[in-house]
Amino acid sequence: MLEVFIFATLNGLVTGFLLFMLASGLTLIFSMMGVLNFAHASFYMLGAYFAYSLSLYFGFWTGLIFAPIIVGVLGAMVERYGLRRVHQSGHVAELVFTFGLAFLIEESIQFFWGRDTKNYQTPELLDFPLFTLLGQEFSAYRGFMMTISVGIFIGLYYVLTKSRVGIIIQAAITHPQTVSNLGHNVPLIFMGVFGMGTALAGLAGVIAGPVLTTFPGMATVLGSIVFVIVVIGGLGSLAGAFIASLLIGLLQSYAIASDVGMPDLLNLLGVSFERGHPLNDLWTMNLPQIAPVLPYLLLVLVLIFRPTGLMGKREE
Amino acid sequence: MKNSQLLTKIFGSFRKPLLAISLGCVLIISSTSSAQEPVRIAFMDPLSGTFASIGNTGKTILEFAADYFYNSKGGILGGRMIEIVPLDNKQSPTETQLQFRRAISDDLHIIFQGNSSAVASTLSQTISRHNRRNPEQEVLQINYSAVDPILTEDNCSFWHFRFDAHANMKLDILTDFIAADEDIKSMYIIGQDYSFGQVVSDTTIRLLNEKRPDIEIVGNEFHPIGQVKDFTPYVTKIVSSGADAVITGNFGADMVSLARSIIDSGLDIPIYTFYAAYDGITATLGESGKDRIRLVHNGVANPLPTELRKQFNRDFKIAHPNYDVTQPRIVNALQMVVTAMEKTQSTDPYDIALALEDMRFTTMGGEEIWMRGEDHQIFQQLSVSVHTDEGVEFDADNSGFGLVTEYQVPMEETILESSCQMRRPRR
Predict the structure, then answer these.
(1) Whole-structure pTM value
(2) Domain coordinates of chain A in residue numbers?
(3) How much is the ipTM here?
(4) Which CATH architecture has domain B39-165+306-380?
(5) Among A52, A89, A91, B304, which is 20 to 30 Å from B359 by CA?
(6) Which of chain B's residues have a Cβ under 8 Å away from the Cβ of A289?
(7) Cβ contacts (< 8 Å) between A120 and chain B: which residues?
């Protein structure tokens, strides 16, 4: 049982950190522009596909470096030539724009790469078990994923709180007019943040592609969960996104690893039901079965009891 | 108020003659062009979304087979071409209802559908209802892949024909194969949480209990279909359960991710599956899945039995280098439907259905297959094949890897009783 717990924790952390790479960009973009970028997970998928194509010719490591850059540049261009124009028509227009963009990216990917699963593999260099604990292996690649995402978190934290650029960005979020009056190019900052956010999503795609499989549905699978994280963490809050990412990663992992369910609860209460009972499905339900629904349950609870999210500031 | 009443009166008086004229036009047009009018067949499967790759491959095979065997040789029924009309149901029962309406308004009466037993059930019920209410305008369901047994058992329908072995038949063969392996002492079952996944679980437990009571079922897990990001947490449980083998009915991305996670965890145990090949799966599993992943399927894999079958594969590859002949049963289904049409000289679903019942047909692979009349279930030889790169004449995903048949069961031994009480329409 112990090894299940340890590995559930490790898996939860890997997933949590990966989710944070996506959520951080999304929440930054939101706090800056006030728009939820529905196409965010699509940039994640683009990252995986670009890295796959690059890895075919130049190897995994080239893909790791250049795919996020390409995605970031694409993202910046989307902001510069798309969002900025749409921005004048208000938030609804922006929302619809990113919504459309998500479909556009997914269809383009299917057009250029086809609909089948891509054979995107982990690099041979990392093709060994990092450690074996109680008969279970933890692959080096997962360790690598964790290292990268923790590195990104620390880097992001440092840049945003300690560096001059970070201070300007933070100022531009709350007081864009003043920052502009001080002589900073606010639209350029917005473009940079959007580019960085999408590049982070791209990077998440690059490192997740080989383990979570690269296929046209990968954005859909992860997309909704990232929104859940951003809302639970509090819209616009980086720290909130971090906590929510880990929370959801661990929550799902533990739920799957656990073997408890309604039958145990009923046994505890001393109640039993016939197999032919109309609500039989409900009485036999167990936690692993509903694990993927738990984040959404948490979302509903958070919205009821703490509408601003865990770390969100109340809107005036 | 007065004006509008006047308008309705005027138009009301016009309505009927107009209808008559337009009907007349249609009749004239259709009677003059009937010799060339194509036989239109709907292909309703996911052509977008998570499971799009399977649907698109199926569509490509059906279109190719129609051209290869019929359209390039002057068509059927005295010169009529076969036209395949794709309808994208996104593998959702709701969308299926909408697409079915579209099929009706487009005058399509034969629907090929295969992916997801949940969708097949919806479609079967919808068609039964429609056919009851609209006699003379019936629709025929050609199910080439949905394998929930219930479709040809308790919920069987006169308008539904299945061209794939159902899950219980396949599991009967697969568990025979597993039972023969003395090294397997425990089994872990994991599957998608819907009708087919449940059937795989229930039947595996029942059959293993009969054949090898000493095999312990150490896990019986369901996960939501197409929703799992990462299978590692599940694999952790498989590892700690100490299972000697895994059996799963997963398909598409859920299959690849599961197999990859098992392999990545360093767990070296055999994985028994239904759908772990083609559409990128074989290429993704590659070397790491060699000799570990087995599939139960109908027909045979490498070596292909006849020259006709081989030539079909080669010609298909020339036309579609990026696709594979993943489901030759689609070709069987098309050939049998066309045979029924030729025999009755009709495209009426009722005539076709009667002709299909108890039809015995020799496939391009040279084996005789039988469509049982009492429940509309096909019977043909079943095989268990292994994922490998040795002895693979026809690979999958252009990867060098493919399937090699290890175990074959002739058609007679795959026949199971059916509980079907079919309600036959009266004409």
Answers:
(1) 0.77
(2) 2-305
(3) 0.75
(4) 3-Layer(aba) Sandwich (3.40)
(5) B304
(6) 193, 222-224
(7) 284
